[in-house]
Amino acid sequence: MLDIKRIKENPEEVIELLARKGKDARETIGRIIELDGQRRVLVNETDSLKAKQNAVSKQIPAMKKAGQDTAPVFAEMNALKETIRANDARISDIEQEYKDLMLGLPNLPDPDLLPGGKENNQPLRYFGEPHKFDFEPKNHVELCTSLGLVDYERGVKMGGNGFWCYKGMGARLEWALLNYFIDTHIQDGYTFILPPHMLEYQCGVTAGQFPKFADEVYKIANPVSEGRVHYMLPTAEAALASYFRDEMLKESDLPQKMFAYTPCFRREAGSYRADERGMVRGHQFNKVEMFQFTTPEGSDAAFEELVTKAENLVKGLGFHFRTVKLAAEDCSASMARTYDIEIQIPSMNGYKEVSSVSNARDYQARRGNIRFKREATGKPEFVHTLNGSGLATSRILPALVEQNQMADGSVKVPEVLQKYLGGIEVLRKEN
To answer: Which residue among 41, 101, 189, 406 is least packed, with the fewest CB closer than 10 Å?
Structure first.
């Protein structure tokens, strides 16, 4: 949620920044300012009426004691009561419209981001060299099938399109990747969290995904509690963003650094492109998510730390990849800036994102009422929240088998994963 003070003091700046995200917000911003003014006038008027109501009511006992006629006072009290009730109803309506409009606004992009979408994304740096083969390489579906790592057909049989089933060494390789990520984050001093996989609606609101994107998340109704609905976690960010919801932290508590392992569930509506075969795009995948709560002044350093951590995880696997600064419109609605780590999958003749590192600034904290108290002043401020994939496996594993394949159809195991596979260095059919 945006800061109403900033909206009122610099409406043109806010409108221009939102336009960089492709949002024409002039009418909305005007209406928000109008509603804020109406609410303030009505609240002040109603508070005055309530004070008058209290003052009048205090006259009644003395009037009764003096034998005076209290009928005019009661008539005045009833009139005040009706006016107050009407004002309260109007205030409630204004506040609901105001809240709906504020929740519908995306975050402001950082000023250094280019406007527009993917066409304006900026590759910042490359690591390693693109893979070149002296034989005809196979794609990851062929490799995973021939090596018995993934059973695509039975995955579809069990879950439908967009699902797959890890098998044997494929399941062990998937688990090895997760253990590599988890061990690295623990060594870096991050707290390991295993959150619920079904979330309350407010988690989506805090993360900035609801109400606009509620239809993109799987919903589960409780069969014995009418109206009780949970939402399947689309990413651990949605859970971790609410970890301190409605809490007041100490300045000395910050930064809070944590990570979570979860399966992630996405509707992924729409048709799949031919190059998104196999595990590249699905309804369920595994991911380790990094998250930080920081002071505003610690926000930029935290962002660079998360980017470096994501890059180092991919470097440790020996992959060729690039880091890309996203243009404003390509950032998600709740984020002020995002860098993507994109890995080469040779059969796709390009790069696929395996980590998005983002800074929400105070946008999520305002939606979730997450604050800290300044030690110097005692005043509360909103924290900054940041997240980053560390990492998602559904594109890492395809890249791993494609980049590390050999002419005989076997696949070299990255050194950092070998200890999790009992020392196996090469995946062969006989494994």
So the answer is: 189
Long-range contacts, 410-419 (Cβ 8 Å, 24+)? 410/147, 411/143, 411/147, 413/173, 414/316, 414/317, 414/318, 415/318, 416/180, 416/316, 416/317, 417/173, 417/176, 417/177, 417/180, 417/317
Residue 405 DSSP class: B
Q: How far apart are CA 79 and CA 409, in angstroms?
A: 86
Phi-psi region at 24: left, alpha or beta (left = phi > 0; alpha = psi -120 to 50):
beta
DSSP string covering 330-381, please? GS-TT-SEEEEEEEEEGGGTEEEEEEEEEEEETHHHHHHT-EEE-TTT--EE
| Cα 12 from chain centroid (whole Å) | 27
d(CA 69, CA 60): 9
Q: Is 309 left (phi over 0), alpha (psi -120 to 50) or beta?
A: alpha
Cα-trace Rg, the chain: 28
> How is residue 190 annotated by DSSP?
P
Per-run averaged pLDDT (10 residues), the chain, 431 residues: 97 97 97 97 95 85 82 85 94 97 97 96 94 91 95 92 93 97 98 97 96 89 84 96 98 98 81 50 91 98 98 96 97 97 90 96 98 96 98 93 95 97 93 71
Name the pairing type of β-strands 256-265 and 284-294: antiparallel
CA 6 to chain centroid: 23
Nearest to 29 by CA among 121, 104, 87: 104
Q: Are 131 and 399 in contact (CB under 8 A)?
A: no
Sign of CA pseudo-dihedral 309, 314, 320, 323: negative
Q: State phi, psi for 289 to the nearest 5 degrees.
A: -115, 130
Pick from 196, 147, 190: nearest CA to 167: 147
